[in-house]
Amino acid sequence: MAQRAFWKGYLKLSLVTCRVAMTPAVTESSKLRFHNINRKTGNRVVSRYVDAETGKPVDDEDQVKGYERAEDDYVLFEDDELEDVALESTRTIDIESFVPRSSIGWIWYDSPHYLAPADKVSEEAFAVIREAMRKTDTGGIARLVLYRREHAVLLVPRDDGMVVWTMRYGDEVREPDPFFKEAGRSDVASSAKTMMKKLMEARLRDWDPKLVRDPVEERLHEIIESRTKKSKRTKPKKTAEPERKDNVIDIMEALKRSLASEKKTARK
To answer: 7-29+84-168: what CATH class?
Structure first.
């Protein structure tokens, strides 16, 4: 079953325009969701917005967005006012410029979305833009309103479609120097680097999504299934904490032991 698009609009580059559809590339729909339950009655507990001073519930139509410019002093905005601020980018991805893909650090990438032509007529124009970016190894910079907020986005080719990445703003990314300078700079012996490389090669695997599975989620599903069947649940085994040592370890000795352990595992 095809994924239903959550956004439809237009992709525009100068005079080239085509209809496109977009959907988030990641989903958390399979994640467990818990409700707050009244232990005494077994009923769900619901939350309501209440006035901070009177404590009385506030109806949806009486709620507005407010920016606090001083204590207890707010500038109020209606929903349509916020939408009008970035009206042009609500339904059109207008590519403003192109940048080399290699020039963008991973830390600027936020959330990925799949983009594809919305109909047969749009496929050719979409493919022209996609293949031009692929050939030049560039990404397109544009602006787009998603989740009720305007974002800077990066478009990059992916298979027969594109990926639209929402980008972090400049003031959202901290400078690394103040933190990394505390890490110190130590000279590393070439023999240690060689052994570390061997250790890494022993653990080298082809990428598989199962490598980043969620053991906590799996365990929760087991507990839920067990309780659903009204069977007794065994308590999870406690993993022994590794022995902590305050003295500085011998990095060469640690590498030797690690490599020996990897070789034993490989033989098995």
So the answer is: mainly beta
Report field, pTM of the whole predicted structure over 0.85: no
Torsion of CA 212, 217, 221, 227, to 10 degrees: 150
DSSP 142-160: EEEEETTEEEEEEEEEETT
Domain ranges of the chain: 7-29+84-168, 192-198+249-268
| pLDDT tens track, the chain, 268 positions | 456 678 899 999 988 999 999 999 987 776 777 888 888 898 999 888 898 889 898 988 888 888 888 888 888 888 777 666 555 557 899 999 999 999 999 999 999 999 999 999 999 999 999 999 999 999 999 998 887 778 899 999 999 999 999 999 878 888 888 888 767 667 778 888 898 889 888 888 898 878 777 777 777 777 777 777 765 555 555 655 555 554 445 677 777 777 787 777 766 6
Sheet containing strand 16-24, edge to edge, reads 92-94, 7-13, 16-24, 109-117, 161-167, 149-158, 138-146, 97-100
Return the structure tokens found at 158: 């992916």
Cα separation, 177 vs 183, in Å, equals 10
Residue labelled with tokens 């365990």? 219
Compute CA 239 distance to the chain's CA centroid, rounded to the nearest angstrom: 30
